[in-house]
Amino acid sequence: MIPMVLRRAGARRYPLLAVGLLAALALPWLVYPPVAMDIVTWALFAAAVDLLLGYTGLLSFGHAAFWGSAAYASGLIAVHSGLPFPVAVFGGAAVAAALAVPIGALSVRSRGIYFAMVTLAFAQMVYFVANQWRGLTGGENGLQGIPRELWGLDLSDPFVFYYAGLPIVVFGLFCLWRVVHSPFGHVLVAIRDNPARARALGYPVERYKLLAFVLSAALSGLAGGLFAISHGFVSLQEVYWTTSGKAVMMVVLGGIGTLWGSALGAALVVQLEDYLSTAGFDGIGIVTGTVFVLVVLLFRQGIWGTARDLAARRSAARRSAAGTSAALRPPPAPPPVTGPAQRSDVDEPAATTLPQ
């Protein structure tokens, strides 16, 4: 029999997935389609970072290396091969995963701030290579003129391209959701909470960390490649360390270890930046930084995490109140005594006749 807790969690989980899918389908009707594409790609990037930060306990400031390298790789594949853009995007994700293997193998041996600094150092190395290899990346001029090819279909309309690229984002988010709710994801949470105990139970901690690092990098590359195809341009900004910081900020704003919070944080940051840039305001970083500080001070678990904890406390309070009222309710009255003509459901034993 399935425990009541698991059934209750499943009853909440699947309607929430349906609501999220409907929101993604309606997004280009609510905001400008290029902004909608930026929201979903950054949501996938932030969720991939959250897999490492929220579920494995590793803070990375180097994920711009995977986002940016996949963006360059996807752009180069699309420019020089003429293949459909999904092939270019997944090719960029493969490049990001391949790059993550040596970086992760050297980084996962560190912990805490040392892990963050090592990943930042590797990201700056990738930035230096992208800046100096001008013949391939364009250097400061960037990689321009990236086409959107899909078997002869016209994808020049951003509204049409949004629905062409959305299945890739949904696929990436589904992979993250499946990993988090799998036994592998539970082992990652155990490693985050107590790596010594997980190692004592026989789990190869460094191997699990490396696998989580590569998965996170591959899905970050999936988002970066789609972002490059959407904009038709890749700049050095994509491999700069501020891109990693922006993704971490989205995760913290929404709520670390929630996945849904990453999407919410991405929507808030991208919408705020678009609104401020459209209004002609130059100090975008000041406003986003102020919002980040306020959310950290007022919502320690992030926006989504705080709302989830508040709903859980209210639900527990209602169940406790219902249990208390049931305990204080007087017991039911005993059934009335039946007469000789009335018989109970249970047959009475036959009378025994004693001999005279």
Automatic annotation (TrEMBL):
InterPro entries: ABC_transp_permease, LivM-like. GO terms for molecular function: branched-chain amino acid transmembrane transporter activity. Residues 321-356 are annotated as: Disordered. It comes from the Bacteria. Residues 329-338 have a biased composition (Pro residues). It is found in: Cell membrane. Keywords: Cell membrane, Membrane, Transmembrane, Transmembrane helix. Its main location: membrane. GO terms for cellular component: plasma membrane. It holds the Pfam family BPD_transp_2. This is Amino acid/amide ABC transporter membrane protein 2 (HAAT family).
